[in-house]
Amino acid sequence: MANQNRARRSLIVLIIAAAGLLLLIILTGENKVQLSPVEDVLRTVLAPAQTAFSSAGRKVQSLVDAVASFYELKAENDYLRKEISFMEQQLVQYQELQKENHRYRKLLQFTEESDHRLLAAEIIARDPSQWFGTITLNRGYLDGVEQEMAVITDRGLVGMISAVSPHSSQVLLVTDPRLQVSAMIQRTRDPVAVGIVESYTKDSANLKITYLSPEARSQPGDMIVTSGLGGVFPKGILIGIVREVDKEQPGMTLSALIEPRVNFNRLEEVLIILNPGKNKVSLPEPRESGKVGEPLS
Questions:
Q1: Alpha-carbon distance 240 to 199, whole Å?
Q2: In a designed cystine with 280, which of 21, 117, 189, 191 is the match (CB 3.0 to 4.6 A)?
Q3: Where exactly are the structural domains of the chain?
Q4: Each residue of 22-33: pLDDT tens digit?
Q5: Long-range contacts of residues 206-210, Cβ cutoff 8 Å, at least 24 apart
Q6: Which among 187, 188, 171 has a CA at the least distance from the CA of 179?
Q7: So what's the pLDDT on residue 278?
Q8: DSSP label at 245?
Q9: Kind of pairing between the strands at 157-164 and 169-173
């Protein structure tokens, strides 16, 4: 019985609410200049709620817009980072090509003044255990390279070909203890000014010239060049500059400390003297081919 009364009351409330809504629609359905009392009361009661819902809606929309903007900015930032990385790589390649071009120009200018037939080669390896001892070139006996050929740059003597394979060769640097070079003081060119250039055990970056006659009158600043004796190194190739003369050395000969003209730490390209006395040169072909040109004949 109680359940039936409760159901009846719910039905009556529902009917009254529906009637109220229907009356509200009828009263507000026409265009009116002035609000009815019911409309005025309803708007007054609902205004705070409408304001709250409207403010919350704007905040939610702002949050959605902010999230969307964040992902757009993140995607744009990732794209710009990739573009910057690509441009940096392009800049590095351009600078490398520019430096390579500058080195080749210097080699070309040097060969135009040389009396030797030269073959350009690139350094492809260094002996890690002997940084100042040996290097490997991308030229071999198929390119005309033979053992005991002199290797130079536009700055001076590098060393001598010590081993050759079909497509590569090994160079024994002048700073290696195994190599000795007959040399002389360029300023005097006197027979007594001839000595032997070899490695300097106290500093592998420098050289020393020994067996100089006391009459050689060597002094700091003297240019040391190859003497041509021995037949391996042509005469007149610059080796280095005298920095200090050991005048207190006992015995019949003197020695001097030499600073090499070639910076062996920065070697990248060299020239191999194929046939002394013939003014010809072989420079690398354009970079795209990845090859080095054959010697001109």
A1: 12
A2: 117
A3: 36-113, 117-282
A4: 555 555 555 555
A5: 206/243, 206/257, 206/258, 206/259, 206/260, 207/174, 207/175, 207/239, 207/240, 207/257, 207/258, 207/259, 207/260, 208/255, 208/256, 208/257, 208/258, 209/183, 209/242, 209/255, 209/256, 209/258, 210/253, 210/255
A6: 171
A7: 44
A8: E
A9: antiparallel
pLDDT greater than 90 at residue 161: yes
Mean pLDDT, the chain, rounded, equals 77
CA distance 182 to 228: 7
Over 90: is that where the pLDDT of 205 sits? no
Which range in 11-15, 62-66, 101-105 is most confidently predicted, on average pLDDT?
Answer: 62-66
Q: pLDDT tens digits, residue range 247-272?
A: 666 667 888 999 999 998 888 889 99
- The predicted structure's pLDDT at residue 18: 55
| String of DSSP letters for 119-154 | EEEEEEEE-TT-TTTEEEES--GGGT--TT-EEE-S
CA dihedral sign, ordered 225, 231, 234, 239: negative
Closest CA to 175 of 193, 201, 156: 201
Return d(Cα 119, Cα 271) in angstroms, integer. Answer: 5
d(CA 16, CA 50) in angstroms, rounded, equals 25
Assigned architecture for domain 117-282: Beta Barrel (2.40)
Among residues 186, 280, 171, which one has the least CA distance to residue 236?
186
Angle value at C-alpha 233, between 229 and 235, nearest 5 degrees: 65
